[in-house]
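Hi there, hope your week has been kind to you so far. For a while now I've been wondering how a particular protein folds. I'm sending you its amino acid sequence along with the backbone structure tokens. Could you read through the record and tell me how the tokens relate to the sequence? Take your time with it, there's no hurry, and the full record follows here.
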Amino acid sequence: MPRKRSTFGTVGAQKSGRFSARYDDPDGNRRSVKGTFGTEADAWAALAVVRADMRGPWTDPDDGDISFADFADPADFVREYRSVTLSARAQQENVYLLPRCAPVERQ
């Protein structure tokens, strides 16, 4: 079955008989809606939800894929620090930052 296109995105049938939906984000990147759908109508409905979500400020769905703990890992600093400084920073991170930046489940 050929892909059907609207002014916002496309819906196409997979070999499995399920449907996928794709759209262009404001940055011009082609993105797929997460998952596949049992009916074509469900895929179009998912595209409508994505379109409605994009009416506000655009947030890249791939942002936030790295946790704060990984981002702030002192071992990854480009600058070379003395071991005393690294251990002090690691202790401060463990006591003050990480408890306040616990992972949050994204919906």
